[in-house]
Amino acid sequence: MGDDDFQLYDLKVEVVHGDKSRPMVCQHREGDSFVLRGSRIEIASGDSFGMWAMLAVLPFLPAKQRPTVKGDWMTTDANIGCTDPNCGAHFRISRLELRSYKHADFTKVPLTATT
Predict the structure, then answer these.
(1) In what order do the strands lie in the sheet with 89-102?
(2) Given 4, 46, 91, 93, which is the most exposed site by the fewest CB atoms within 10 A?
(3) Largest CA distance in the chain
(4) Domain coordinates of the chain in residue numbers?
(5) What backbone torsions phi and psi does residue 15 show, to the nearest 5 degrees?
(6) Are 11 and 92 in contact (CB under 8 A)?
(7) Confidence at residue 26, expressed as pLDDT on a 0 to 100 scale
(8) How many CA atoms lie within 13 A of 47 on its CB side?
(9) 90 or 46, greater pLDDT
(10) CA–CA separation, 10 vs 51, rounded Å?
């Protein structure tokens, strides 16, 4: 890899009924999912992903995309709970393919710029 390359995992985020002691509310449908490739979210035809579910997982996605070490909790923890404490839905984040990208494909800030 060159100095201007970096790697990100593609991610799949899927609705699962993680806590069976509570019903799934918030109009979640088990099996609905989306895939994150680079910075683009792809939702398959017929699937949906609720706004509140999206808000629950968005903060974790950039960290889950990046390679981590074995001991990092981002490596092992995959389920994010619904923001509604009465809902049994979880959102499972799975790593898929590791892809390489170029710095210039994501920003116009020169690579030589440092802060």
Answers:
(1) 40-42, 33-37, 5-17, 89-102, 79-81
(2) 46
(3) 53
(4) 5-103
(5) -75, 125
(6) no
(7) 87
(8) 16
(9) 90
(10) 21
Separation between Cα atoms, residue 12 and residue 78, nearest integer Å? 11
Q: What's the mean pLDDT in 14-26?
A: 93
Centre a 10 Å sphere on the Cβ of residue 99 and count the other Cβ atoms it contains: 13
Map tokens 């923001």 to a residue.
83
Residue (of 77, 105, 75) closest to 18 by Cα position: 77
pLDDT at 107: 87
The pLDDT of residue 1 is above 80: no
Backbone angles phi, psi at 60, to 5 degrees: -90, -20
Instruction: Report the C-alpha gap between 28 and 3 in whole angstroms.
Output: 42
Tokens of 101: 């990208």
Q: Under a CB-based contact definition with an 8 Å cutoff, are residues 65 and 8 in contact? A: yes
Task: Quick: pLDDT tens for 49-86.
Answer: 888 889 999 999 999 999 999 999 999 999 999 999 99
